[in-house]
Design the sequence.
């Protein structure tokens, strides 16, 4: 696929080389090499030029970013997608719970990557699948997919620099009020194990801010903001402070049933598990600067029906102790 980008050179860039100018815009080394190798990849006032050409005020610089391979063997599938936004550079998708983002050895199809690849193919496009922020299979909500190498590089850098703002909604076990910050490093439990744990010696820095929105025993509804994006970060941090995500079996979300002989309470919890049969975590909002236009972008996703039904049932129980 071809992505054409055009820049009108302003006085601030007068006298710069094309190479220096593009580096100032965030073009990475691999992208610059790609442009150099592309036939008519860099045009200055309509003429194919080298990167060392000098720019002058009023010049028109045109770049052709061309990719003709998907780069992977992801099988394209025609799976419905909830696309919140699309342009030449990116997609914002509202991912359902139960859909993995990437294929794995045990799950080659029915992933977001399969669905996006199928979406591209149906439009006659061949593009690599480039996901910027990842979600666990059972976490619902907003995901950014870059459509070309430049948007992928710039959005990836924004993610590393903690410039992509994310809010999650989560139902956790126990009563948690107020707000706070969890600052605790995260590492694998052991090599090859998908599980993570708090590890102050070898873990990667991880910061999660939370605010309690609703608190009635036995659950709390939280708004969470991430500064970092470690695998299972919210799930591990909530377990660390003693408030495991509801129905998060991997990190102890079923422990709420242990140690109680109250039959009616057990029935309530089991009914809740049936209503929301996954960890109750939803990526609700995304905010970021568009990688090529510089526009401030903001997206909000409605809480999914399973989590809403869980909250409704829990409110009834908290107020009346009725199932």
Sequence:
């Amino acid at each position: 696929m071809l992505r054409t980008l055009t820049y009108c050179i302003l006085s601030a860039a007068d006298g710069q080389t094309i190479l220096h100018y593009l580096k100032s815009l965030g073009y990475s080394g691999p992208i610059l090499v790609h442009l150099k190798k592309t036939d008519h990849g860099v045009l200055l006032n309509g003429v194919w030029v080298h990167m060392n050409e000098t720019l002058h005020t009023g010049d028109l610089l045109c770049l052709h970013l061309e990719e003709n391979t998907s780069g992977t063997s992801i099988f394209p599938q025609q799976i419905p997608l909830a696309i919140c936004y699309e342009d030449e550079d990116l997609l914002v998708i509202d991912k359902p719970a139960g859909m993995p983002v990437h294929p794995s050895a045990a799950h080659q199809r029915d992933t977001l990557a399969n669905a996006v690849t199928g979406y591209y193919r149906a439009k006659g496009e061949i593009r690599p699948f480039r996901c910027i922020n990842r979600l666990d299979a059972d976490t619902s909500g907003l995901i950014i997919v870059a459509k070309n190498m430049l948007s992928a590089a710039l959005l990836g850098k924004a993610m590393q620099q903690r410039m992509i703002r994310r809010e999650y909604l989560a139902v956790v076990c126990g009563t948690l009020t107020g707000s706070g910050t969890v600052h605790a490093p995260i590492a694998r439990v052991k090599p090859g194990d998908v599980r993570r744990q708090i590890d102050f010696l070898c873990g990667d820095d991880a910061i999660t801010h939370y605010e309690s929105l609703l608190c009635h025993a036995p659950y709390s509804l939280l708004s969470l903001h991430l500064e970092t994006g470690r695998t299972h970060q919210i799930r591990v941090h909530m377990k660390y402070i003693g408030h495991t995500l509801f129905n998060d079996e991997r990190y102890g979300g079923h422990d709420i049933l242990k140690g109680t002989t109250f039959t009616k309470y057990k029935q309530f919890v089991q009914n809740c598990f049936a209503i929301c049969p996954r960890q109750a975590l939803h990526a609700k909002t995304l905010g970021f600067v568009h990688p090529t236009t510089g526009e401030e972008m903001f997206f909000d996703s409605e809480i999914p029906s399973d989590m809403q039904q869980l909250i409704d049932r829990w409110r009834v129980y908290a107020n009346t102790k009725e199932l």
